[in-house]
Amino acid sequence: MSHDTPHDPAGEAGAATEPAPVVRPRIGDYRRHLLVCTGTRCTQDGESQVLFDSLGAKFKAAGLNDGELRVKRSRVSCFAACKGGPVMCVQPDGTWYYNVTPENMDRIIAQHLVGGRPVEDLVFHQGPAGG
Protein backbone atom coordinates (compact mmCIF):
# COMPACT_ATOMS: atom_id res chain seq x y z
CA MET A 1 0.00 0.00 0.00
CA SER A 2 1.35 3.34 -1.00
CA HIS A 3 1.51 6.29 1.35
CA ASP A 4 1.27 9.49 -0.59
CA THR A 5 2.74 12.56 1.07
CA PRO A 6 0.91 15.84 0.47
CA HIS A 7 2.82 18.44 -1.53
CA ASP A 8 4.79 20.76 0.81
CA PRO A 9 5.96 23.93 -1.00
CA ALA A 10 7.89 25.07 2.10
CA GLY A 11 10.27 22.20 1.62
CA GLU A 12 11.27 23.34 -1.86
CA ALA A 13 14.58 25.06 -2.56
CA GLY A 14 13.02 28.53 -2.88
CA ALA A 15 11.79 28.54 0.70
CA ALA A 16 15.24 27.80 2.11
CA THR A 17 16.84 30.97 0.72
CA GLU A 18 18.42 33.47 3.10
CA PRO A 19 16.51 36.62 4.00
CA ALA A 20 17.36 39.78 2.11
CA PRO A 21 20.17 41.77 3.72
CA VAL A 22 19.20 44.71 5.88
CA VAL A 23 19.86 47.93 4.01
CA ARG A 24 21.70 50.63 5.94
CA PRO A 25 19.61 53.83 6.02
CA ARG A 26 21.00 57.07 4.64
CA ILE A 27 20.29 60.54 5.93
CA GLY A 28 21.78 63.60 4.27
CA ASP A 29 23.98 66.00 6.19
CA TYR A 30 22.28 68.52 8.45
CA ARG A 31 23.38 71.15 10.97
CA ARG A 32 20.50 70.85 13.43
CA HIS A 33 17.71 68.41 14.19
CA LEU A 34 14.39 69.90 15.27
CA LEU A 35 12.20 67.54 17.33
CA VAL A 36 8.57 68.66 17.58
CA CYS A 37 6.14 67.10 20.04
CA THR A 38 2.93 66.29 18.17
CA GLY A 39 1.35 64.36 21.04
CA THR A 40 -2.29 65.00 21.89
CA ARG A 41 -1.45 66.11 25.44
CA CYS A 42 0.93 68.84 24.28
CA THR A 43 -1.67 71.03 22.59
CA GLN A 44 -5.35 71.14 21.80
CA ASP A 45 -6.87 70.80 18.36
CA GLY A 46 -3.73 69.43 16.70
CA GLU A 47 -1.78 72.70 16.87
CA SER A 48 1.54 70.86 17.11
CA GLN A 49 0.85 68.82 13.99
CA VAL A 50 -0.17 71.96 12.08
CA LEU A 51 3.07 73.60 13.23
CA PHE A 52 5.09 70.58 12.12
CA ASP A 53 3.33 70.51 8.75
CA SER A 54 4.19 74.20 8.18
CA LEU A 55 7.93 73.70 8.69
CA GLY A 56 8.74 72.47 5.18
CA ALA A 57 7.68 75.75 3.57
CA LYS A 58 9.17 77.85 6.39
CA PHE A 59 12.52 76.04 6.15
CA LYS A 60 12.59 76.41 2.38
CA ALA A 61 11.89 80.15 2.62
CA ALA A 62 14.69 80.56 5.18
CA GLY A 63 17.20 78.44 3.24
CA LEU A 64 17.14 75.64 5.83
CA ASN A 65 15.94 72.83 3.56
CA ASP A 66 19.38 72.09 2.09
CA GLY A 67 22.97 73.21 2.16
CA GLU A 68 25.17 74.10 5.11
CA LEU A 69 22.30 75.25 7.37
CA ARG A 70 19.97 72.30 6.62
CA VAL A 71 17.65 71.45 9.50
CA LYS A 72 16.16 67.96 9.76
CA ARG A 73 12.75 67.82 11.41
CA SER A 74 11.07 64.92 13.18
CA ARG A 75 7.81 64.34 15.02
CA VAL A 76 7.97 63.01 18.57
CA SER A 77 4.87 61.55 20.22
CA CYS A 78 5.71 62.78 23.74
CA PHE A 79 8.56 64.51 25.58
CA ALA A 80 6.77 64.22 28.95
CA ALA A 81 6.87 68.03 29.17
CA CYS A 82 3.18 68.59 28.60
CA LYS A 83 2.81 72.19 29.73
CA GLY A 84 2.98 75.24 27.50
CA GLY A 85 2.96 73.43 24.17
CA PRO A 86 3.73 73.20 21.41
CA VAL A 87 7.09 72.05 22.75
CA MET A 88 10.19 71.36 20.67
CA CYS A 89 13.88 70.67 21.06
CA VAL A 90 16.79 71.79 18.87
CA GLN A 91 19.70 69.34 18.72
CA PRO A 92 22.65 69.19 19.02
CA ASP A 93 22.25 72.52 20.85
CA GLY A 94 20.12 70.99 23.63
CA THR A 95 17.71 73.94 23.54
CA TRP A 96 14.10 73.27 24.57
CA TYR A 97 11.34 75.70 23.55
CA TYR A 98 7.75 76.08 24.73
CA ASN A 99 4.80 78.10 23.43
CA VAL A 100 5.96 77.57 19.86
CA THR A 101 3.17 79.42 18.07
CA PRO A 102 3.57 80.13 14.34
CA GLU A 103 4.85 83.63 15.20
CA ASN A 104 7.32 82.27 17.76
CA MET A 105 8.45 79.62 15.28
CA ASP A 106 9.33 82.42 12.85
CA ARG A 107 11.47 84.01 15.58
CA ILE A 108 13.17 80.68 16.35
CA ILE A 109 13.92 80.12 12.66
CA ALA A 110 15.42 83.59 12.13
CA GLN A 111 17.30 83.95 15.40
CA HIS A 112 18.32 80.39 16.32
CA LEU A 113 18.24 78.13 13.27
CA VAL A 114 19.68 80.77 10.91
CA GLY A 115 21.42 83.13 13.35
CA GLY A 116 22.69 80.60 15.89
CA ARG A 117 21.32 82.42 18.97
CA PRO A 118 18.55 80.85 21.08
CA VAL A 119 15.37 82.87 21.62
CA GLU A 120 15.85 83.15 25.38
CA ASP A 121 12.30 84.18 26.36
CA LEU A 122 10.97 80.93 24.84
CA VAL A 123 13.62 78.58 26.27
CA PHE A 124 12.41 76.48 29.21
CA HIS A 125 15.42 74.18 29.46
CA GLN A 126 18.98 74.20 28.21
CA GLY A 127 20.45 70.72 28.14
CA PRO A 128 23.98 69.72 27.24
CA ALA A 129 25.03 70.63 23.72
CA GLY A 130 26.14 67.66 21.69
CA GLY A 131 28.29 69.34 19.37
From TrEMBL:
Q: Where are the transmembrane segments?
A: none
Enumerate composition-biased segments (Low complexity): 11-21
InterPro entries registered for this protein in UniProt: Thioredoxin-like_sf
Q: Where would one find coiled-coil regions in this protein? A: none
Q: Where is the composition biased (Basic and acidic residues)?
A: 1-10
Q: Which Pfam families match?
A: 2Fe-2S_thioredx
| Domain of life of the organism encoding this protein | Bacteria
Q: Where is this region: Disordered?
A: 1-22
**Protein name in the entry:** (2Fe-2S) ferredoxin
Organism, scientific name = Paracidovorax cattleyae
